[in-house]
Design a protein that fits this description.
Alpha-Beta Plaits, alpha+beta
Length: 80
């Protein structure tokens, strides 16, 4: 499992609510909203799934850009 965090640059404050709704539809947790920036956290099965999600967000209307700022691989707790 991969946990990832980043932010979306929204094209105009009036579109922030729409983008938040889109992120929530994708099972992303919204950590913070700052005018035209929405900070998110989500989990996916693999890093490739994270990359696919980030790339698809870039194609959402009124998204200026998407930045991945952090990711980590969660183990099952059995690693030494």
């Amino acid at each position: 499992m991969v946990v990832a965090s980043g932010f979306v640059e929204v094209d105009g404050m009036k579109n922030t609510g729409k983008i938040v709704g889109e992120l929530k539809k994708r099972n992303m947790k919204i950590d913070y909203i700052e005018t035209e920036k929405v900070i998110f956290l989500f989990e996916r099965e693999s890093f490739e799934d994270v990359r696919t999600e980030i790339d698809s967000l870039k194609n959402v209307e009124d998204v200026r850009n998407v930045h991945l700022t952090y990711y980590c691989f969660e183990g099952d707790g059995d690693e030494v």
